[in-house]
Amino acid sequence: MAIFILRRIAQGLLVILGVSLVVFVATRLIGDPVKVMLPLSATDTQRAAFEHQLGLDLSLPRQLVDYVGSLIRFDFGDSLWQRRPAMEVVFERLPNTLLLITCSLGCAIMLALPLGAIAALRPGGIADRVTVFGGLFGLSLPQFWLGLLLILVFAVIFKVLPTSGGGSLAHYVLPAVTLGIPSLARLMMLARSSMIDELNQQYIRTARAKGLDFRQVMIGHALRNILSAFITLAGWEFISGLAGYTVVVETVFAWPGLGLTALQAIQRSDLFLLQAIVFTVAVLIVAINVGLDVAQKLIDPRINLA
Amino acid sequence: MTSLASPAGAVRKPWPFAALLAELWNDKAAVAGLSVIVLLLLAALLAPWIAPYDPAAQSIASRLTPPAWLPRGNLEHLLGTDQLGRDVLSRVLYGSRASLLVGVSVVTLAGSFGVVLGLLAGFNGGRVEAMIMRLVDVQVAFPGLLLILLVISVVGPGMGTLIVVLACTNWMIYARMVRAIVLGVRQSPYVEAAEMIGCTAGRVIFRHVLPNLTSPLITLGILEFTNIMLAEAAMSFLGLGIQPPATSWGLDVANGRDYVFVAWWLVTFPGLAIAATVLAINLFANWLRVTTDPQEREKRFARAMAAERRRRRRSR
Fold first, then answer.
1. pLDDT computed for residue B292 by the predictor
2. Which residues of A181-195 are buried (b: 16+ CB within 10 A; e: fewer)?
3. Helix (H, G, I), strand (E, B), or coil: what is residue A85?
4. Which of A163, B242, B301, B308 is placed for a possible disulfide with B248 were both Cys, Cβ 3.0 to 4.6 Å?
5. Cβ A144–B230 below 8 Å, yes or no?
6. Residues near A259 by Cβ (< 8 Å), separated by ≥ 6?
7. Is the ipTM of this complex over 0.90?
């Protein structure tokens, strides 16, 4: 177990290294940070001074060393837009995004399991067909459009919920629903299909034959066995939310989270802030991935951790 | 139910797709999906001839006209006009081109790259496989969209950038699937037999392994197409995809966003076009997956038999 965890952490470090390398190449070799960050009207001396200030006039290997140093110290310099340390901005906005993802994913998980299980009881029945169509429908809605429609209906026409911003509990409803619908669809479809497969297994028939009641069989046997796959997908949903898929929802609802900040950093050409965000998210994703693998092993001893 | 998989059955039929079409007809949702897809293809191909206006033509006099069926609407602009007086229907028709172009190019690029690498990994094994699969693992764990945003912001947005970036971040899923299938098929007796009697590697790959890949690859490609379409729309919505003189559904929704309080039709129709297209493709792909997968066919058959038995027991 310990060796397994260590190996996963090593793999995670490799991912972080890859991400950092892509960021370095993208910002230093492909793009020209000075050109991106300074206005067109800047003079050559201003450009040179700025380049010197950022350390971009040094040789490339030297820049790489400095860059790796900044990664290890978790210090990405000051955000040009906010005029304060980039990491400070990241830690201020990160909780908002985490809370939003947790809320929407939590609701999606609690709905997906029972809905999927009900559909699986009678494959091809009415509940099943409604679930499948509902799932496909949920997967087909572009999130930015769904968000705008929800604003149109609940904030403009009925005036029951706020259009945008953060703060009260009511502010969570529309963004969380918008963010959660595709996740709910995917989780529900998975719960349904794996439950159907599970209920067709011989051991379920045995359990029923020896007289266990149906609820016990569903919860104690079938549910336990599909939980591993379900948790993998749920974890993946969390990660993909963190990996930037909240950007759209946060933009539509002006949610003060990390995704919106990343977009604003792009619009303001604030490469340092963007770098800090990408790196933090990469570290978080790796940490969650390791945690998920361990959790899976604890839930399902059949999993081979090689 | 005649088996689709048996080549003999297909040869005897006057037209090989007849059985497939008959089966498609049984699933009305898939038929609806396919019709929407065909309509969309026609709209994209014939846009210059069927669109009532030039999508970029502005006319300030008729700006923010509501759709034809509303009190202030008129028949000249069926779906109304935007804040610059551009015809919404024409823009929706032209917008289908961007979605299709990006979707098809990305799926083709990422698909061919992923399939080649997957075949290499599945056949060569050893160090080549370890290297390719490590690359896949590492890239899957990347903070995808944020990295895409970073690269696009540095390179500069546009259709070309979007296609290349999306292709670079979406090839892994093909490689994974192809490798898994190849590994499974290689163990099967008929491939071992083919190798034993001295078939060349090329013959084994193309004659014996590739047919196993076609139907899952087609289904995966179609499903990926919808993902790419949604990604293109989202990127254009954020201002990092298709750029203004061109038209795209995501771009139009972003345009209408500031007018959502006074002109609901600006965000509704382009968004509806995206949702309807993706739903149609999903419905069709869902049918295709179940129909072309022998395991799924078996399950469906077993389910039908069970339902039949239940019905008979109840009537007794």
1. 76
2. bbbbbbbbbbbbbbb
3. strand
4. B242
5. no
6. A97, A244, A245, A246, A247, A248, A249, A250, A251
7. no
Distance CA A14, CA A243 (A): 17
The pLDDT assigned to A108 comes to: 92
B140-180 residue pLDDT tens: 666 667 778 777 877 778 888 888 888 888 888 888 888 88
Determine the longest span between alpha carbons in chain B, in angstroms: 78
In b/e form, how buried is each residue of A230-269, taking b as 16+ CB within 10 angstroms? bbebbbbbbbbbbbbbbbbbbbbbebbbbbbbbbebbeeb
Place of tokens 């719960």: A191
Question: What pLDDT is recorded for position B8?
Answer: 47
Residue B28 is predicted with a pLDDT of: 78
- Selection from A129, A139, A134, A183 nearest residue B274 by Cα: A139
Length of chain B: 316
- Distance between CA atoms of B228 and B167, rounded to whole angstroms? 9
**How many other C-beta atoms lie within 10 A of the C-beta of residue B308?**
10
Binding-face residues of A in 173-232 toward B, CB within 8 A: 200
Angle, helices B126-140 vs A2-24, to 10°: value is 70
- Return d(Cα B17, Cα A105) in angstroms, integer: 43
Instruction: Please give the model's pTM, rounded to 2 decimal places.
Output: 0.82
Tell me the backbone φ, ψ of residue B81, rounded to 5 degrees.
Answer: -130, 165
Strand partners, A85: A78
- CATH code of the domain made up of B95-302: 1.10.3720.10
Give the pLDDT score at B106.
Answer: 92
Contact B150 A23 (CB under 8 A): yes
Q: Does pLDDT of B3 surpass 50?
A: no
* Interchain contact, A14 vs B142, CB within 8 Å: no
Q: Which domains does chain A have, with CATH numbers?
A: 93-271+287-299 (1.10.3720.10)
pLDDT at B7 over 60: no
> How far from B48 is each of A141, B139, B270, CA to CA, in Å?
28, 40, 18
Contact check, Cβ <8 Å, B267/A15: no
- Segments of chain A scoring below 50 in pLDDT: 306
Of B141, B154, B253, the CB nearest to A285: B141
